[in-house]
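_Backbone structure tokens_
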Amino acid sequence: MARMDSYVEYTLELLEPLGIVQARAMFGGWGLYQGGRMFGLIAEDRLYLKTDDTTRPTFEAAGGEPFIYDSGKGRKPVTMSYWTPPPDAADDAHALLPWARRAVEAALRAAQKKKPAAKQPSRRRT
């Protein structure tokens, strides 16, 4: 298991007002989870929060930047649905909380979209 660095620990402290948040090492960074759903990530000492069509414009208007990674071998960079909170919220738990709540809500909406439709019982003809 990877050892948390000071930035990850600091970010978890900032997010304490949100409730129980867990950090899990992944792909050289950290995934942030609440209620089993990933709502944020930390890569290269930057916090990114989950967005969707509802919240992305707010993050963009506030000066956030998307998480972009290099997919390798001359392929196009990939833009993910995670954005930085505005710069003034990065070090202030009170200012960060509404942005983190938006991210948790976006993660919940994404999870609800992925739920498979309930199977109807098959009707057997006799």
Observations:
- The first strand starts at residue 22 and ends at 26.
- The chain has a mean pLDDT of 89.
- Residues 26 and 109 are 23 Å apart (CA to CA).
